[in-house]
């Protein structure tokens, strides 16, 4: 006849969690021979090592998810942002926003330096529409306009970012040879002399 105490310690069938087999609570104890399971002191002694091993195995179980911005710990999300040379995330942004920023930077990386990427990124950081005027375009050979290249950005707010941080964000994303003007709520914040924009510029 089977000892009821032995049956109590044996693990049940593993449950499925997110498509993976879940490790049972007494996964290590359950591997002991029946004679050892009958010794309560020995079982409790083995559970000490089981608890320690469980921590290490849990890290291994979650390893495939550490590179997923939707599931990774927020500290890992910030670390992954560094891989993409993304702007440093301000603490004023919540965890959901930080995850969204990483996903957006990854999506726009092939377009970095273009109008499309700049609008997408700045609207995410500022939480407001962005209006861009620029000198760029597609021209026939020999028909490109002379003079320095420029871009003018207008937003109603910089969001949680301080204005100086917003300026740095823009300057990091705009090609180095392009002059930048930044206007927030009708006030030019870059260049910092408050000068009026050059005449004749038309929004494209």
Automatic annotation (TrEMBL):
InterPro entries: Unchr_phage_tail-like. This is Phage tail protein domain-containing protein. It comes from Ruania alba.
């Amino acid at each position: 006849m089977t000892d009821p105490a032995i049956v109590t310690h044996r693990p049940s069938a593993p449950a499925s969690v997110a498509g993976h087999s879940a490790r049972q609570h007494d996964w290590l104890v359950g591997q002991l021979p029946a004679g050892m399971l009958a010794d309560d002191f020995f079982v409790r002694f083995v559970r000490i090592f089981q608890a320690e091993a469980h921590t290490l195995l849990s890290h291994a179980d979650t390893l495939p998810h550490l590179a997923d911005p939707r599931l990774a710990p927020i500290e890992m999300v910030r670390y992954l942002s560094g891989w993409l040379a993304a702007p440093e995330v301000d603490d004023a942004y919540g965890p959901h926003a930080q995850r969204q920023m990483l996903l957006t930077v990854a999506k726009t990386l092939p377009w970095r330096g273009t109008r499309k990427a700049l609008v997408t990124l700045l609207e995410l950081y500022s939480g407001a529409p962005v209006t861009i005027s620029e000198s760029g375009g597609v021209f026939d050979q020999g028909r490109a306009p002379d003079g320095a290249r420029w871009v003018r950005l207008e937003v109603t707010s910089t969001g949680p970012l301080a204005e100086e941080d917003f300026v740095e964000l823009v300057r990091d994303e705009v090609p180095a040879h392009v002059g930048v003007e930044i206007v927030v709520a009708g006030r030019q914040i870059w260049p910092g002399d408050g000068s009026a924009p050059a005449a004749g510029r038309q929004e494209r």
